Amino acid sequence: MPRWEPDARARLVVAALHLFTEQGYDETTVTQIAERAGLTKSTFFRHFPDKREVLAAGQETLSGLFAEGIADAPEGATALDAVGAGLDRACSTMTSFNRELGSRMSAAIAANAELRERHRLKQVGMAAAMADALRARGVPQAVAALAAEMGVLAFSEAFTAWVAADEAPDNGTDRTGGTDRTGGTDGAGDAGDGEGMVALARAALDRLRGALAELG
Amino acid sequence: MPRWEPDARARLVVAALHLFTEQGYDETTVTQIAERAGLTKSTFFRHFPDKREVLAAGQETLSGLFAEGIADAPEGATALDAVGAGLDRACSTMTSFNRELGSRMSAAIAANAELRERHRLKQVGMAAAMADALRARGVPQAVAALAAEMGVLAFSEAFTAWVAADEAPDNGTDRTGGTDRTGGTDGAGDAGDGEGMVALARAALDRLRGALAELG
Predict the structure, then answer these.
(1) pTM for this prediction
(2) Torsion of CA B53, B7, B188, A213, to 10 degrees
């Protein structure tokens, strides 16, 4: 990003998601998104090819982090352990910005088929990145494909839970650290930064691992 | 379909895939597709909302067959056994028409990002249909999601192998019944109808089942 447009990309994402949820995706133009962000239309197009792609923001970054974490897992790690390392790497970078935007993103996705499609393609893309990274470790194709699907399922489940915990600050039932939103990072639902999501993703992956025995 | 347009849908699919691979997806118009099929543009729009959706042809039919097969599996069947029953049901309906179109579809998908997206969404849709049918049997969410992903991986792998076997009639290495393309349904790669694909899907699902033990 050019120096004179600090956080332009993030501002465009925020503006777009606000407009999508306020007035509808179809009714929102790129000009409106740029205006709301206090930027020009040409700045928008330097960051995104079209308004739908705003939803894919973060896909490449997350995919890269998944792949790095998987590549850096210890040599003898199993496929699922490597996926866990990828989830750790990606989730630890998640910020309160991601979290706050999460519920607005969910609302936009729920309301529009085109955004729903883009969201699903984002998951497909992340699964492909994980599967590639696993294959690069010598994991056979079928095992890599399954482990990658489990990684994406765990990530999605964890993200939903992480956002929901942020939306319901008074609901202490799922929280180990009480209801203090400014508290430490020891409670999975509490952390404003990515540590909480790391714990949630680990738990989700463990649940999926447990589900393997029930497949039959 | 109206009586006076027998096979209109199938003719539109054939015409579209021929045009996509001959002159490119972007260059192909709905008018051209209808003309090639010997039909009108309004007939096209009775069957598909736009040219991209031609690629989704069969998605609802296949999803319905997967779901039926899963619902009809014996009461005590495991999640993966139920998925196997869904694959049986869907694959047994595959015809030489599906098979012949398969390689053209692959070529069109490989050459265009929009079609690639639609193809992936088709897979996502089929996985959702299988997962729903499994949950309706009382299979827990995580188990249903994993089993459904395995079902789609098996179906995709089997379809690719089935089409490839048709394209290489002189390659007898993967065939149990020789190279007679008009032969019986005993060889997985030989059958012009769906029996060959049933066997391939079963084998793919078995391989995936075997891969579970390697996930770690």
Answers:
(1) 0.82
(2) 40
Chain A residue with CA closest to B119: the answer is: A121
Let me know how many helices (H) and strands (E) chain A has, helices first. 9, 0
CA distances to A59, A70, A117 from A16, rounded to whole Å, are 17, 32, 17
Chain B residue nearest residue A208, CA to CA: B142
Q: What are phi and psi of B32, to 5 degrees?
A: -65, -40
Give CA–CA dist B187/A123, Å, rounded: 37
Q: Dump the DSSP string for A125-150.
A: HHHHHHHHHHHHTT--HHHHHHHHHH
Separation CA B1–CA B7 (nearest Å) = 8
Mean pLDDT of chain A: 87
The Cα–Cα gap between B98 and B2 comes to 22
Most confident of A53-57, B71-75, B112-116: B71-75
CB proximity under 8 Å: B 108-147 to A: 117, 120-121, 124, 140, 142-143, 145-147
pLDDT of A169: 60
pLDDT digits (tens, 9 = 90+) for A185-206: 344 444 457 889 999 999 999 9
Single-letter amino acid, residue B61? T
How far apart (Å, rounded) are the C-alpha atoms in residues B170 and B190?
11
Report pLDDT for B172. Answer: 45
Using DSSP, state whether A71 is helix, strand or coil. helix
Can you tell me the distance from the alpha carbon of B29 to that of A68, in angstroms, rounded to the nearest whole number? 42
ipTM of the complex as predicted: 0.78
A149 at interface of B, judged by CB pairs closer than 8 A: yes
Instruction: Encode pLDDT of A124-173 as tens digits.
Output: 999 999 999 999 999 999 999 999 999 999 999 999 999 988 776 654 44
First to last CA, chain B: 50
DSSP B73: S
Question: Is the Cβ pair A143, B214 closer than 8 Å?
Answer: yes
**Residue B47 token pair:** 């069957």
**Above 50 in pLDDT, residue A40?**
yes
Q: What is the 3-state secondary structure (H, E, C) of B176-213?
A: CCCCCCCCCCCCCCCCCCHHHHHHHHHHHHHHHHHHHC
CA distance B61 to B67: 10
Residues B215 and A146: beta-carbon distance below 8 Å: yes
Quote the CA–CA distance of B159 and B198 in Å, as a whole number: 10
pLDDT at A147: 96
